[in-house]
Design a protein that fits this description.
Layout: E1 2-6, E2 9-13, H1 19-25, E3 49-52, E4 59-60, E5 71-73, H2 77-91, H3 108-115, E6 138-140, H4 150-158, E7 164-167, E8 174-177, H5 193-196, E9 203-205, H6 209-217, E10 222-227, H7 248-258, E11 262-265, H8 266-285, E12 295-296, H9 301-310, H10 324-340, E13 347-353, H11 357-361, E14 378-381, H12 382-391, H13 413-416, H14 423-437, E15 449-450, E16 456-462, E17 466-474, H15 476-488, E18 495-499, H16 520-533, H17 543-553, H18 559-565, H19 575-588
Parallel strand pairs: 1-5, 10-11, 10-13, 12-18, 13-14, 17-18
Antiparallel strand pairs: 1-2, 3-4, 3-5, 6-9, 7-8, 15-16, 16-17
Helix pairs in contact: 8-10, 8-14
């Protein structure tokens, strides 16, 4: 143990504890900007500097250990002046148009400027300018980048994609796309973890709210909105409401107040996805020798992009089932349109998702009909819909609970847990067991656990099939470890669920941002609790799904169900594939 003094308080902490953490243990909060525990401890911002007796220079608290007998002053006049100077230097390269910034009111730089009482700028402001590409769902504004390096570290250490890097030298040093590329030319998965960990508005999701407002204002357009499972346990955070009060019923009410004609539940199409995917799994398990293993889930578009770019030989192992978002769009613009007598071209389908990659997914050429009409017209993240509520002066506290519309608004607990890591796996196993055996298992029988790997796994016995080995992983760094283990033959599974974001959709790149807090696990627990309280917990028991098959789709995996609900993952290419093909053509010429 180490004994020291911080701001006159005696401190006793374990060896190796940073000054920042030691101070926090006794209630002293040292301001910081670039620091992310165990991810980014490089002291780039120099805002966390403190004074240590016997040391001539100020030292950063985030990456210096507290040593025996140290006397530390965290807020002396010298420290305060240094922090203010350092912050002003950062601001001298920053676009301070805060009132029009998407992170206004939720920006660490803005908060620190207020906390340190900075109200004028003595230094000349020189901002970096770059062109903003609105064709990709992830936007970088160089003028707002503070070179904290968080995005680089998150992308390298947590997601292992290495999309961001340091560019330039000296005063021209900046953060940009690695290897001097444009973002659209990279294999970025658009998971958005760099966005949720950016302390300013330098990285954001593309704002598509104006497109939605135009549709809402058009009297000739019928607007349909769907709400993803993970949104219901996160939207309340933007209004400081408890999850118990901010029910899905109040969210439905808020969406109706915005002006949507129909409000549906993506949990319905999650149930639909499970019916197709579990039939697909059951078919493969009964014909093991005809398929390559494992079978991978395909509902996470960031994961699909990752697999296509990093492990393309496994693309055929993906389930061909579309994601719940895309299945919903397909059903709305076919079955629902026929039921209501509406021209599909006059329907505008909006998805409320916890995910940035969903914006790219709905733009894929394989997600359009034969006439080029997209199944889903626009995707708004949880953050975007909360901004819409604010702009429409909606006060959730004053709203009464309302129900989803029918016939696409009924769901089961299996659909709800799509938003939590391991949820898709469990939901699929529940229904696959029923299809294979004709009997219902305990819905809580399929518990996945961490063993010696950074992913969950389990082995379950299914009568007539034998043992089925499964795994569920979240976070792309963990996913890469899993794929390497599978590729080397170190592990063997029959069915694998992958979610690109740590914690699954609950921790998606489109969810509310809370500095220093990772809420995916807490949100995921809420979804599991909702599932346990639902009267129906098997996707194939959803009565509206049953009606849809009986009246319109026919049998799972066949005919209309196959045409509307499945996709070809090889029918579109990643930027790296296109680049290789172009290079090959150049060599041939």
């Amino acid at each position: 143990m180490v004994n020291a003094t911080i701001d006159g308080l005696s401190v006793c902490v374990e060896n190796g504890t940073s000054i920042l953490d030691a101070a926090k243990s006794v209630g002293i909060l040292i301001p910081h900007l670039c620091y992310l525990k165990e991810i980014n401890e490089i002291a780039a911002c120099r805002v966390c500097v403190v004074e240590v007796d016997g040391t001539g220079r100020l030292v950063p608290a985030c990456n210096n250990e507290l040593l025996e007998g140290m006397v530390v002053r965290t807020n002396s006049p010298r420290v305060r002046q240094a922090r203010r100077t350092n912050l002003r230097l950062i601001l001298s390269q920053h676009d301070t148009s805060c009132t029009t910034c998407i992170r206004n009111g939720n920006c660490m730089l803005q908060k620190l400027s207020n906390d340190l009482n900075i109200h004028y700028q003595p230094y000349r402001v020189r901002m970096e300018r770059t062109e903003i590409d609105m064709d990709v769902p992830l936007i970088r504004e160089a003028s707002k980048c503070i070179k904290c390096m968080r995005c680089i570290q998150i992308c390298d250490k947590v997601q292992n994609m290495k999309i961001w890097d340091v560019a330039g030298t000296g005063s021209r040093t900046t953060v940009d796309v690695s290897y001097n590329r444009k973002l659209k030319d990279t294999d970025c998965t658009y998971c958005g973890q760099c966005v949720t960990h950016c302390p300013t508005g330098a990285l954001t999701a593309r704002d598509d709210t104006n497109e939605v407002f135009h549709a809402l204002a058009d009297p000739d357009i019928t607007t349909v909105v769907q709400v993803a499972p993970a949104v219901r346990v996160a939207w309340a955070e933007a209004f400081q409401l408890s999850p118990e009060f901010a029910t899905i019923g109040r969210l439905v009410s808020a969406l109706r107040h915005v002006g949507f004609d129909y409000v549906f539940d993506t949990d319905f199409s999650a149930d639909l996805t499970i019916v197709e995917e579990s039939h697909e799994l059951a078919k493969k398990l009964t014909h093991r020798n005809q398929y390559r293993w494992p079978m991978f889930t395909s509902c996470c578009p960031a994961w699909v992009r990752f697999l296509k770019s990093q492990y393309p030989s496994y693309v055929d192992c993906l389930s061909t089932a579309k994601s719940p978002q895309q299945m919903f769009g397909s059903v709305v613009k076919s079955y629902f349109a026929e039921q209501k007598g509406i021209d599909p071209k006059k329907l505008f389908v909006v998805s409320i998702m916890p995910c940035i990659a969903k914006k790219q997914e709905c733009e894929l050429p394989t997600m359009k009909d034969a006439y080029g009409v997209p199944s889903v017209d626009a995707v708004l993240t949880t953050r975007e819909i909360c901004r819409v509520f604010h702009s429409e002066h909606i006060v959730p506290v004053n709203l009464k609970e309302e129900s989803f519309d029918s016939p696409l608004g009924t769901s089961t607990g299996a659909g709800v847990i799509f938003g939590a890591t391991g949820g898709v796996m469990v939901a699929a196993l529940r229904s696959a067991y029923c299809f294979l055996t004709g009997s219902k298992p305990d819905p809580d029988a399929f518990q996945l656990v961490h063993k010696t790997h950074p992913w969950k796994e389990g082995t379950f016995s299914i009568p007539k099939i034998g043992k089925v080995h499964v795994a569920a992983v979240s976070g792309l760094s963990n996913t890469r470890r899993l794929m390497e283990a599978i590729d080397k033959g170190d592990v063997s599974y029959d069915f694998v669920e992958v979610m690109a974001c740590p914690g699954g959709c609950a921790g998606g790149g489109g969810q509310p941002i809370h500095e220093g807090l990772e809420l995916a696990e807490k949100r995921g627990e809420c979804l599991w609790q909702i599932d346990s309280a639902m009267p129906l917990r098997f996707s194939h028991e959803n009565p509206e799904v049953q009606i849809l098959y009986r009246k319109y789709l026919g049998q799972p995996l066949k005919g209309k169900a196959h045409d509307l609900l499945h996709t070809d993952h090889n029918a579109w290419k990643m930027p790296s594939q296109i680049l290789k093909e172009n290079e090959q053509k150049s060599k041939e010429y």
